[in-house]
Amino acid sequence: MAERSTAAVDVADNSGDEPLTAKADQSTADGVAQNRERDTESDEAQGSPEVEGRGRTSAPELHSGHKLARRYRLEECVTRLDGFSSWRAVDEKLRRAVGIHVLPADHVRARVVLAAARSSALLGDPRFVQVLDAVEENDLVYVVHEWLPDATELTTLLASGPLEVHEAYQMVSQLSSAMAAAHREGLAHLRLNPNAVLRTSTGQWRVRGLAVNAALRGISSDTPQRTDTEAIGALLYASLTHRWPYENDAFGLSGLPKDVGLLPPDQVRANVHRGLSELAMRALANDGATASRHESPCTTPEELVRAVAEMPRIRPPEPVFTAPPEYQRTTYQQGTYGRPSPGAGATAVPTPPPPLQSRTGKVLKWAVSALLIAALGLGSWQLADALMDHGSSENTEQTQTTDTNDKNNDALKPVHNLTIKGAAEYYPDGKPQHPGDAGLTYDDDSSTYWRTYTYRAGPTLAPFKQGVGIVYDLGATQDLSTASIGLYYSGDHTTAALYATDSLSSSASLDSMTKIAEASTSGNALKITAKKPVKTRYVLVWLTAVPYAPGDQYSSDAGYRQAITDVKFTG
């Protein structure tokens, strides 16, 4: 039977270290860099048309309904190219959509693809589409990755025109930061094009196919950082101008006119942001030459991150409020009280008499006013006299009532559920658990979970691992008072804390966050309540102790672990 290897192992010792695998040796792959390609082939695009295979090794004969590892059911082939195929599939164990690349185990690039997938999985950065599994089984190699049904490819976004300036700014900022983090870990993309860049429904930009896309196609580069930086520049250029910054058409975009060179974006299209135009040219500089007017070229993602940081921040556009339809004013507001509207057939209403203007009327008004003032004075005197008669007994009762109201003041405040807009696993030690499953904790499905690895000692994870957790995005700064968390394993004991933080970063220091509250339980639910509401947009649920659990369908080994689901926040 063929050997089976996966991208992650569920059992870890108390050091918190998961078994590591070698990173892809991309120098063994053949091909050319992505920035030199001029083809319009689709990557493993969600819903992209199937492309006929043309490689030396035939793709496996698979079909819709075929099941891999008795778990992944193939649904739709979205790419068939160069001896491999890419599919939309269903993980029947976790009941979620996934994407899968499949190629024969004897394919010339099978080893490189496996190594690239495992390297990408170990990065665990939520800004990249996560590799969930990398398997060799039954003469097949297949790589399983996240499928984001709520995300839209940049190719689709550009089909209707250039991006709004703030969107383009967010895209280049997030992509450059993500690729800088990947290169710090020795990983390159080398095929960063509009098909590989996705925008989620919450406005986050995510990158698909880190290391894997290039390995599948045998692409390498002697200058991987320069290759990825130029690719980001091309994406920004296309987002500003709706043109591909080379002579050939690609990705549904027209190329630049021949023999005119690389024109700056603000010379290709009117009203292009000057700073972003120069940034695109700095990233697109070839061989040290740049068309930027003032600045030096950016040749690494890290340099591009610094260049973005030096720019004045581009704020989102002010919301445009559409005026409501003009309401129908009454006849009184129109100054026609007592008269029908033009064209109306209603019976005329008698005109009311004019207000009193005679001397008698004025005297009457003064008399009525004097009587009212006298009545108010008399009532006030009687109320004060009654309060003085009751004295200390009334004071005591009033004090007790005030104390009771103060204690119940929070209960009188309206409580409302806060909507979770996104989530990312938090692992400041660089050792993730299951980052691709963070979204399962708030999907309104109690049967799906995010789970930790299994540890051999506990319940407290420290000092070997300080904790594990997930950061949630509430969409905007809101008052947070309570977190309710469903737990898969009961037992002695689970401890978790809430922290207010300023981003979805997986590596921000815990010391930079504000601790809100902490709680423990031995049951299947945990409620954490703050002493008073805290204003925050991002909140971390941080597990520091997990119970002992026997082997089950998630892990055959007994040990200390926990899985969480149905996370809800109220404010």
Q: How far apart are the first and last residues' alpha carbons, in Å?
A: 55 Å
Count of DSSP strands: 21
Query: What is the residue-mean pLDDT, rounded to a whole number?
Result: 79
For the record, what is the CATH homologous superfamily label of the domain at 417-570?
Galactose-binding domain-like
Radius of gyration: 33 Å
By DSSP (H or I, 4+ residues per run), the number of helices equals: 10
Low-confidence regions: 1-57, 327-348, 392-408
Judging from the principal axes of the Cα atoms, what is the shape?
globular
The description of the largest β-sheet is: 8 strands, antiparallel
β-sheet strand percentage: 15-25%
Indicate the structural class. alpha+beta
Percentage of residues in helical conformation: 10-25%
CATH architecture of the domain at 417-570: Sandwich
Main CATH class of the domain at 417-570: Mainly Beta
In CATH terms, what is the fold-level topology of the domain at 417-570? Jelly Rolls
Task: Considering the chains and any ligands shown, give keywords for the structure.
single chain, 571 residues, Phosphorylase Kinase, domain 1, Jelly Rolls, 8-stranded antiparallel beta sheet, 25% helix, globular, disordered N terminus
Topology (elements, then pairings):
Elements: E1 67-68, E2 72-81, E3 84-91, E4 96-104, H1 110-123, E5 131-137, E6 140-146, E7 152-153, H2 154-158, H3 165-184, E8 197-199, E9 205-207, H4 212-217, H5 224-241, E10 243-244, E11 254-255, H6 265-268, H7 274-283, H8 301-310, H9 359-407, H10 409-412, E12 417-418, E13 422-426, E14 450-451, E15 468-487, E16 494-501, E17 514-521, E18 525-545, E19 548-549, E20 559-560, E21 563-570
Parallel strand pairs: 10-11
Antiparallel strand pairs: 1-2, 2-3, 3-4, 4-6, 5-6, 7-8, 8-9, 12-21, 13-15, 14-21, 15-18, 15-21, 16-17, 16-18, 19-20
Helix pairs in contact: 3-5, 3-8, 5-7
